Amino acid sequence: MLAYAIKSAIYLSIMYIPYMLILRKESFFHFNRILLVCIMLLSLILPLCDFHSLSIENNPIQEGMIIIGTPTAVMENGGNATMTEDFNWFVVAFYVYIIGIVATFIWKMVQLAVLYGTIHKGVLWKDEQYGITIYCHAQDIAPFSWLNNIVISEDDYNNNATEILQHEFGHIQHHHSFDVILVNIIQTIQWWNPFSWLIASSLCDVHEYEADHDVLTSGVNIYQYQTLLIRKAVANTTYTFANNFNHSLLKRRIAMMVKEKSNPWMRTKALLVVMMATITLCSFSTPELHKQVGIIAEKMQETNEKILRIIKRIEYLQQLRIPEEKIAKIIAKKKERTEKHTVERRETVKSNTEETNKVFDVVDEMPEFPGGMQALIQYLTNTVKYPEESESKGEQGRVICTFVVEADGKVSNTMIAKGVTPALDKEAERVVRSMPNWTPGKLNGQNVRVKYTLPVTFMFQ
Fold first, then answer.
1. Model's pTM, two decimal places?
2. H/E/C letters for each residue in 351-412?
C-alpha cells in the first residue's frame, strides 16, 4: 500500500508540474479542468497496472523495497541459525502513513458533516427548481453550492439573486462537486504530498473561472458582476467540499474575465503532460531510463524558465511601446463590444423565458388527470366536502374553476371563473389546489404549460 502511494504521488507530481508552469494561466477553462481530472485519475490508476513486460532488467526500486522488508539471519546459541529482524524503517513509515490517512479522513468527514449541518441549519425556506434545491438562510452566510444544493442568505437572495444563483448553477451543471470528491480522495491517500494540495487549489481556480464564464455569457453585466465579487470578498466562510461564491482568488478571476481567449493551439502544451507521464511510466519499468528521468526533468525545467523569461520580457517591451491613447481606445472598444454582447444576450434570454412561460389553451396532447377522466370524477366525489353553511342555507350550483397544468404536471394559478357563493367557491378552489400532479400537456413533443377549465358541481342528493 505504501509503495502504491509513493508511485501515485510521483505520477501526480510529474504530470502536474507542466500544467502549473505553462497551462495554468490559459483561458480554455473546460480543457484545463478535464486535464486536471485526468491527471488525478491517472495517478490513481497507473500504479495498479503491471508494466513489468517493459522492463529490461529487474527494477531497482522494487528490489529496494523487498530488501527493506527481508529478515536477516544471525548466529546465536552456539552457532544455531535463527531468523531475527533488525529495526525496520519500512514498517515505521507504513504505520505513520496509515495514521496520516486515518487522521486526514476523519478531518474531512468532520468538515463534510459541518457542511451538511450548515446547509440545513437556520433555513428560512427552501425551493426546488429543475432538480436543484435552494436553501435560503436568515443569517449572513457566504453563498455556496454542493451537489444539487445551493445555500444563500436572505439578503443576497433579495439583492443579488440573479448573479449568485447563475454562478452556483454553473458549478452544479458542470458537476464540480464530483471533482472535489476526487481531489479529496487524492489528498487523503497522498496527505504528505504538497502537490496533492496544490492541484486542489488549481482545480478550484478552474471551477470558479468556468462558473464566472457561465454568469457573463448569461447576460449579466461584467462590471456589475466584478463589483459584486469585490464586495463579497470580505466574507471568509468557506467549506472544503463546497463551491464557494466568494473564493479568495478574486484578482485572478477578474483578470481572467477580461483576458483575451487563448489560442486553441496552446492546448498542444498538454502533450508535455503526456510526455512526462510516459517518462515516469518507463522509469518504473526500465532501470536505464530511471537514471535519465532526473536529467530530463532538469533540462525541461531550465527550458521552461528560459521561455517564461522571454515571454515576460516581450510583454514588458510591448507595454513600453503602446501609447496610452491606444490603450484607452482598446479598452473603450472592448467595453463597447461587451455591452453589445450583453444586450443581445439579455434579449435572447428574455425571448426564451417568454416562450417557456407561455400558457397554451389547446395543444397536441392535452393534460390528463392520473388515471383519466373517471379517476378525476372519483377524486372530486371523494374530496369535495359540502360546506355546512351552504348546506344549511340550501345553496347549490356549479363552480367553474380554471388553472394551469405546468410543464412538470403541477397545478398552479387556480382561479374561479364563475362562482356561486363564497363558501362553495372556496371549497371548489381548495379541492383543485389539492389535486395530485397531472400528466402534462405536450406541444411538438415538448412539455408545455396548458390552461384547463374544470366544473365542480354542488348538488343535494
1. 0.51
2. HHHHHHHCEECCCCECCECCCCHHHHHHHHHHHCCCCHHHHHHCCCEEEEEEEEECCCCCEE
